[in-house]
Specification:
- Pfam families: Tetraspanin.
- Belongs to the tetraspanin (TM4SF) family.
- GO terms for molecular function: transferase activity.
- It is found in: Cell membrane.
- One of its GO terms (cellular component) is plasma membrane.
- The protein is α/β, with parallel strands linked by helices and 423 residues long.
- The protein has two domains: 159 residues, Orthogonal Bundle (Cd81 Antigen, Extracellular Domain, Chain: A); 201 residues, 3-Layer(aba) Sandwich (Rossmann fold).
- The protein contains twelve helices and 13 strands.
- A seven-stranded mixed β-sheet has the order 5-3-1-6-7-13-12, with helices on both faces.
- Helix 1 packs antiparallel against helix 2 and helix 3 runs antiparallel to helix 6.
């Protein structure tokens, strides 16, 4: 929905630049302005279509649709960059073009047979912008119009403050618009305003399209292959990803089976498969934090000072945070110490995580360093859970938690919606 709204907004800006005083465009010798606007309209249409395709691709996890989605994202980026650059270049050339061509187009084509659109544009320009002539009203003393079509008038009737038939016989300032700089200065100001908006929207949306939103996936030791796969598939089709692990250690996937083996193999050779060091991550550079189901979180992330620092920033800035399954244990590190006591920053939050009934099935249950359910309850949080292996997600403010690996898709979709609503 947010992609469709963004696409509609981009189309609206492009259409507005063409429709608002559209007659003026015919006075420009260059078609750059119109091309930039049409490109932005096309980009908006593609954004709307891509938004719907992206939803289908992520929900169904169809590889073919995802490939098409990536290609369309690239096309959108190129279209919007092109529109923005064209607008910027034309912005630099506009003054020279107007001074070189506007006077000739006005005095040579006004009321000339076959140039009715130019005549309408000039009349509208002079009336709307309250000006007369390209540089001044004296411009109308030269050219074809004064010699052929003026009928004793000194200026066109549209120069008059109160237009009536043959009111252009008098060119006194009390009768016609005489402004410093003529219509050139006013038309230049008008078009520059539109170009600034056109360029800003084109480059701004392109930047957002590329940068999108950066997710930090905090991982350690063994990470559920299925959970990570689902997180990556849902997020990478819309956003750029940055993975991070303590010390930048290589991701070690757990539970690799026939459904994930090939994906894990393909992922391992990609550039983004090399994690950044969690210790070097600056939370201010990122818009969302995603921790998939990872058994290793119990042993390391749950006590990570680096992650505690990042989480403290995210909570203070109310940025979206999502943790799934045993990845919820990573949230336990976020404590604040005072002279009186130690307080968990998620105290008072409603959340979920692996239930005792799910954990007890593990042969290592007796050796687990932390029981998430007990920690949440003992630290002032509100814990809920569904039956074992059921999908269960809790959303409280900007925190999304999923009970288990089966809750990954639902939790991540909620995170994406939360991020879109906060833009």
């Amino acid at each position: 929905m947010s992609s469709q709204l963004a696409g509609g907004a981009v189309m609206a800006v492009g259409i507005w630049t063409l429709v608002d005083k559209s007659d003026y465009i015919s006075l420009l010798s260059s078609s750059t302005y119109m091309v930039a606007a049409f490109i932005l309209i096309g980009a908006g249409a593609v954004v709307m279509f891509t938004g719907m395709l992206g939803c289908c691709a992520t929900i169904r996890e169809q590889r073919g649709l995802l490939i098409v989605f990536f290609v369309l994202l690239l096309l959108i980026f190129l279209l919007e960059i092109t529109a923005g650059i064209l607008a910027y270049v034309y912005y630099q050339e506009l003054n020279a073009e107007l001074r070189a061509d506007l006077k000739e187009r006005m005095v040579e084509n006004y009321q000339k047979p076959g140039q009715e659109h130019i005549t309408r544009a000039i009349d509208k320009l002079q009336q709307d912008l309250k000006c007369c002539g390209s540089n001044s009203s004296a411009d109308w003393r030269d050219g074809s119009w004064i010699q052929t079509f003026a009928d004793r008038r000194l200026v066109p009737d549209s120069c008059c403050k109160t237009p009536t038939e043959h009111c252009g016989l008098r060119d006194h300032p009390s009768n016609i618009y005489k402004v410093e700089g003529g219509c050139i200065s006013k038309l230049e100001d008008f078009i520059l305003q539109h170009l600034l908006i056109l360029g800003s929207v084109g480059l701004g949306i392109a930047f957002i399209q590329i940068v999108g939103m950066i997710f930090t996936c905090c991982l350690y030791r063994r990470v559920s292959a299925r959970s990570f796969h689902q997180c990556f598939s849902l997020c990478s089709s819309v956003f750029n990803l940055q993975t991070a692990t303590p010390g930048g250690k290589t991701i070690d996937f757990a539970g690799v089976d026939d459904s994930t083996a090939r994906w894990v193999q393909e992922f391992s050779v990609k550039p983004y498969a090399s994690p950044a060091k969690l210790e070097s991550i600056d939370g201010a550079r990122y818009q969302a934090l995603l921790i998939p189901d990872c058994p290793g979180a119990l042993n390391d992330l749950a006590h990570s000072g680096s992650l505690a620092r990042i989480l403290a920033h995210f909570i203070s800035q109310q940025k979206p945070v999502c943790a799934v399954g045993q990845g919820v244990a990573a949230l336990c590190c976020a404590t604040e110490e005072s002279e009186v006591n130690k307080k968990w920053i998620f105290s008072g939050y409603s959340m979920t995580g692996p239930s005792v009934f799910e954990l007890v099935r593990s042969p290592d249950f007796a050796n687990l360093p932390l029981i998430v359910e007990d920690f949440i309850k003992d630290s002032g949080g509100s814990y809920t859970a569904s039956i074992e292996d059921a999908v269960h997600v809790v959303l409280d403010r900007h925190l999304v938690t999923g009970q288990n690996m089966q809750s990954t898709s639902a939790a991540v979709n909620n995170l994406i919606l939360l991020c879109n609503s906060s833009r």
